[in-house]
Structure formats: structure tokens, C-alpha cells
Amino acid sequence: MATIQTPQTQPDFQSQADKDAVSAKDRTLILTIVIVLLVIAGLAIFGFLAIKQGPDTIQGQADATEVRISGKLPGRVAEFYVEEGAHVKTGDTLVKIHSSLVDARLAQAQAMEEAAAATNARVDAGTRSQIINSAMEVWKQAQAASGIAQKTYQRMQNLFEKGVVSEQKRDEAKAAYQAATAGEAAAKSQYDLARAGAQKEEKMASQAMVNVAKGSVKEVEAILEDQYLVAPCDGEITDVYPNVSELVATGAPIMTLQKDDHWVVFNVRETVLKDIKLGTEIKVYIPALDIHATAKVFYIRDLGTYANWQATKSTGDFDARTFQVKARPTKKVDNLRPGMSVILEQ
After folding, report:
1. Helix 129-161 to helix 167-196 angle, to the nearest 10 degrees?
2. Contact, 170 vs 156, CB < 8 A?
3. Which of 204, 244, 255, 276 is spaced 20 to 30 A from 325 at the CA atom?
4. Which residues lie below 8 Å from residue 68, measured CB to CB, with a gap of 6+?
5. What is the mean pLDDT of residues 139-150?
6. pLDDT digits 0-9 by tens, 35-49
């Protein structure tokens, strides 16, 4: 009977060779990665040391003054004479506002002025001639009565001296004469007053009422001056807020006028200000127009601590404040519009 022999286990030389090959590939890959990293680091260090960092780009924008067109007259928009985008000159009529209420107030003020003027004319004309004549007649009657009383008194005095009448009769005649004389003086005063007319104070009060009435008329007319609103300066209409027939209140903005006074504005670090001073000229570039221009600085202001540039303390740098710089082009730049980007050339 044959004996079956089990073959003995042999060393796995093939598996060990494969492991050695994989290990060699890993080492090669790691070495390659290390070399690449070293090359990149070397290039970065070389670039940092060899390449000089250029100046920072300072970008700003164009801007212009905007004027809100509004008036004192509350009313309804009757008509627009311009539209958005229109270019206007100083004094051009922009819009008409109608107010029936203010028209009624003007008519009322004018009527009050006429009434005050009539009253003042009557005061200035003095007392009517009929009253003056009547006062004069009363004075003449008093004069006649005084003359009769005087003669009666003289006769009584003569008779008293002759002993014909008593002392009482003489005294009665004297009293009548004195009363007649007083009546004559009073009648003359009334006549003089009628001729003189109204007193100075009454005339002043009447004239003051006329002035008040005229002031009321001027006040309403001043409001009605804003019935037609005109352009205060040259510029472009950028916005129109209400529509025709809409109501507008006193002082409500009706449209916006952009003045023809364009400038450029930048926000820069304080370290840049050593080359920028009030009155100096700077070079700017406008990418949208592909134009290089010169502008004169007319405004420099600190924007406050909220706009500081915070430095990294580990680098030994310091915090820098931010300043706003405005400059106006020395020559007109055609087609320059607010909002366009502007580059400060250094």
C-alpha cells in the first residue's frame, strides 16, 4: 500500500519580493514629494527676496453734488417741464405746482388790504364838511349867546351901581355871562377838533393796519413764487419723484439736480499723505474712459477711528488712520459720471 506524503511548506519568496518592491516605491514617492516641497519653498523664498513689492493700488470713484429741488407751496403737481436725464441751465423752469387754497388766501389778503386802505383814506381825509359846518354854527350861536349875556351883565351892573336892582339880580346876570363864555369856548374847541380831523395816534394805527394787510399779501405772494420752481444751477436732472397730479407737501423733494462740479474721492492711509497736500495736483486714471487726468486736491479729512488700518503687532508695524481725499479735475473730463472708478497714479 503506497504511502501518500504531504509536501513540506516552502518559504514564500515571491511574496517577500513584492513587499520589497512596494516599499521601494513608497520611499521614492516620499522622496519626490519632499524634493518638490523643497523646490517650492526655495522658489517662494527666492521670490520674496528677489521680487520687489509694488505700491498698493488706490482706487476711488467720481462724485458730484446733488441738490434736492423743493418749495414752500403745498399743492398738486400741474406740469413738468423737464424729465430725468435732461441738462438744465440756471433759471430754467422745472415744474409748476398749483394750489387753489393758496390762491384763495391771496384773494382774501388782497381784500383785507383794500379794506385797510379805504379806512386809512377816510382817516386821512379828516372830518366830513357837514360836521365841520355844524360845529361852526354851534360856535357862532355860542358867540351870540355870550355877547347877549355880556351886555345883560353890563346893564345889570350899571343898574346895581345906581341902586335900581338888587345885588342878587346882578350876580345872576354875571353867572349867566360866565356860563355863556364857557359855552362859547367849548363850542370853539369842538369846531377846532372837527377841522383838525383824526388824532395823530388814530392815523398811525390806521396806517399800521394797512402795513399789516400789505405784509399778509406779500407773505402769500412769496409762497406763490414757488408755484414755478426753477433750476438753482447748471446740472442734470437725475431723479423725479412725484407724478403729474400728485400732491406734494411743503418742503417735499420733487426732483434731484446733479451739479456740473464733478470731483474724485479716495480713502487712503495716512502714510500716503506725505505726497498729498491741499492744493497739490495728483495724477488719476479713469478705466471706464481710458483717460489719464490731473486733479487738484481741495479736501482732506480724517474718517475717524472706525476706519483705522489695524496692523499686525508681531511685524512691528503700527495702526494707520484713514483719510478721505477729494480732488477736482483741472480740466473738464467729458462723459465723467459719478460712480465711475478712478485709480490714483503713484
Report:
1. 160
2. yes
3. 255
4. 253, 255, 256
5. 81
6. 888 888 887 777 666
